[in-house]
Amino acid sequence: MNGIIIKGIGGFYYVKADDGHIYECKARGRFRKDGVTPIIGDNAEIEVRGGKGSVTRILPRKNALVRPAVANIDALVIVAAAASPEPNPALMDKLTVTAAANDIEPVICINKIDLADGEGLAAIYEAAGFKTFMTDAEHGKGTDALKDFLRGAVTAFAGLSGVGKSTLLNSITGGDLKTGDISERLRRGRHTTRHVELFELDGGGFVLDTPGFSSFEMNSIRADELWEYFPEMADAAGKCRFRGCSHISEPDCAVKDKLRRGEIAESRYESYVEMYNILKEIKDWERNDTVTINFSG
Q1: Tens of pLDDT along 210-248?
Q2: Is residue 292 a part of any domain in this protein?
Q3: Can you give the pTM of this predicted structure?
Q4: Strands 206-209 and 12-17
């Protein structure tokens, strides 16, 4: 049978098979020999005997992330709180780039709109071309529209602790994910998710809660390609005076012209400059490895 790996704990993989059942499976020994590790989201072939299964083959992956180790993600919902904790646009922008570079659709969700309107933040990402949702997960506001979008896809959720990811997923899945109280001292959430797991939606598709991103993967992105992952810069391609313009210090730059006209948000441009300066220092030989930039929430 074929199925999708929805959870992995202690060397066991739990596979939701085509027959609708979930089987506890061990990976065949040849995976270790071949240097292949099954990960959450993998589509796999399994053999089942006596209710127990073995993963016999991993089917080709659409994409795969290192942190968290997940595969075949269609969309990444980047959750930010309108308040408590305060939004972190730099982190949001890093995650949109990470998603786009891995052939994953970045989606923005502004949660906790009961605490602040969040409209200004949402407007930045809508103007940049991202699908954007506004929710109050605590009271179920806006979650139906998000659930409709998720149907039939495999979607990961990411964002700082305390933004309400687990509450949002509880509202969407009808499940009972653990939620942490906001730390009054640090004003940020204590993360409670212990492992990566796919949760099935009633209307089809899966959602994935992640234990928090601790780094931004930059192993495959070149500085001169970074602008391609900022949709609001796309129509400026080829319009700068200098070929290979970095869109930072050169005169007659079409991107900076858009910035001056207010067509690119200052926060988005600042994120671009920060990431560009990091990427230009990475040597070609380092791109064979995963180069990560750690950040604190």
Answers
A1: 655 545 566 678 999 999 999 999 888 889 999 999 999
A2: no
A3: 0.86
A4: unpaired
